Amino acid sequence: MRWISGVAGLAVLMITVGSVLRNLVVPRGLGSALVRVLWRLTRWVLRRVSAPLRGYDARDRFLAWLAPIVLLAMLWSWLAGLLTGYGLLMHAFSGLSWADSFREAGSSLFTLGFASNARSRLNALDFVAAASGPLVIALQIAYLPTLYGAYNRRELEVTLLGARVSQPAWGPELLARQALVGTVDELQGLYENWERLAADVGETHTNYPVLLSFRSPRPYRSWVVALIAVMDAAAMHISLAPTAATVPAARLMLRSGFTALRDIARVVHIPFDPDPRPDGPLRLTFEEYAEAVAHVRRAGFAPERSAEESWPDFRGWRVNYESIGYALARSTDAVPALWSGDRDFPGTPLAPRRPTDRRPQPPAR
């Protein structure tokens, strides 16, 4: 029955090596079933542990461990897969017992050399195993700077957005805050920056899906919520003021944003309509939109259209990204912000808190 051991060992090695290549080497956003299982299992455990806690802050502290645990579990799973595969192959090609086969496989894989048998037929396997262990560890070490470089670029823009809108981010408040301080025209630069960031996120988060689990340093920040907020602000800006100077930049940002979300959705298997109708179904209601239009109007934003006139255009933009954005916000356990969908934990959507106006008032006469 040693041939069964050999076939099983070869299959385990192929699956393990395939997982390593799909996650670390091939830049095509292939992913692997192993990483998806590890992510779901770790998320389930952390959510169960944090379930008795009250408040989003406490839950966020637990969920911050999701990405590091998944990264370590990936490495150990790959090493365990290599050990199992080589152990089965050595048992098949030699007369060694199960214990001695796995002992020699471990000795070779981790280049310790404490177990060696005088069987020339195992030399090739010993050499390949000795090269495999350090190679997988080296790939993982080289993988981390790439991950954290993409993470830092993402979080830099999310942090900068905090200067324009309080956390958690909300699109109408972004427009309202700029109207209050008279910087609506400066939104063009923001849209241009987020157009590039959306393209960067779409590229990095599809090639390295584990980045989706990396949380922001502050509990009320979230790249998913921030991206939805900037896209909502751009869609409202275009719909309410179609002749504004920022319209071209806002259009490009929206296109880049929902293209990135669709690329990510394909990798993590979120269903979506690639060509939705402009009047397609939305979770967001017209009443909520009308309240948001009144909110930005009170802040000093001068719309060219009413809520009724601008709703079809806004709806036509939002239908491209709402379902994917909501699904990502839910799967990443993002902060429950306005206009970002439901979560798997109880909690009402949090509105951004506007800073108190501390400008000096003119003296009373």
From TrEMBL:
Q: Where is this region: Disordered?
A: 339-365
Superkingdom field: Bacteria
Question: Membrane-crossing residues?
Answer: 62-89, 124-144, 223-245
Record key words, sorted: Membrane, Transmembrane, Transmembrane helix
Q: Where is the composition biased (Basic and acidic residues)?
A: 354-365
* Name of this chain's protein: Ion channel
